[in-house]
Amino acid sequence: MNIVVAPDSFKGSLSALEAGTIIQKAFCTVLPQAHIDVIPMADGGEGTLETLLFSTKGKRFQIEVTGPLGEKVLTEYGVFGDDDTVIIEMAKISGLPMVPEEKRNPLDTTTFGIGEVIQEAIQKGYRKFIVGLGGSATNDGGLGMLLALGVTFLDRNGQTVSPFGSSVQQVAKVDYSTMNPIVRECSFQIASDVENPLCGENGASAVFGPQKGATEEMVHQLDAALAHYGQVIEEHLKHPFMAKQGAGAAGGLGFAFLTIGGEMMSGAQLIGDAAGLQEKIKKADLIITGEGQSDFQTLFGKVPGYIGKLAAEHNVRALLLSGSLGKGYEELYKYFVGCDSIVTGPMHLQECIEKADTLLYQKAVNIARLIKHFEGGN
User: Fold this and answer.
1) Model-level pTM?
2) CATH for the 2-41+277-375 domain, from 3.90.1150.10, 1.20.120.530, 3.40.50.10350, 3.40.50.620
3) Which residues of the chain have pLDDT under 50?
């Protein structure tokens, strides 16, 4: 039996690689003759770097850059095993978890460090980039990143603006001709399942600003600032970007990448393609995926939803193992022959998190035993 194990992370407890390895170990215990491929997955957020490094046998590089609050932080980026493509995970450079809760204010955060990583990679000769936009702490419209890449942003007094969210409303003039010219030779594939435009009721500020510390009053201020900033850039480049799907991703960083030729892609699909997932599914008898919690929203851009649809496309049976099953999870039966919670009885959330490895292993063993019984142990 050929089995593909391709889970997302169980947030707060297990990385995608840890979850996949646990499921593999459980199945090997019961079905030692089975061939099992582990392909850890992500959607462009947390775990993107680890997942792609594992799948492509890539390597890590440490770098000191500007963090979300303007301080210097030691972080990392990756490069594919074929030394061809750079992997950048925004959450590791300008991520919300990097900002203490009491300091969360999108007026005070920046994407400058993203641009610094790109600049270093360019200096090393790289021209292809995959960028995961999930988990951002910012709402600067990519102003910080573009400044780091050499784009000129001036206020009404002709002074260069600072790279923080508070400066977005001060932008009076922009000039992309000063940008590092090599950026135009680069390709940027943007892993994000956010389809929001830059501004408006479905824009970056209104939808994502509050979780980054924005008050209701601040949301209106941020949205108006991004609308002004976006208009200045669109008039300069003579091209519309603000209304494009994904422009609102990562506090408008998606918009900034669109202005330098970035291509928005489904995070799960982009990572799956890089890992050769589709070819392995074609040869599989069974695919197993999972995540921390599954509900009706799982079908809208999340890793297990993508996996289930891909399995159905190739007529391969798919199973879903999740920390818990929420509202409307029955919708998932369109793509999965089984949807299981790994929890074995009444438990507090913290206990579930602490015991996630044991619970996942036990559930995977039980499922493997069922498969062995019904399929004769092959």
Assistant:
1) 0.89
2) 3.40.50.10350
3) none
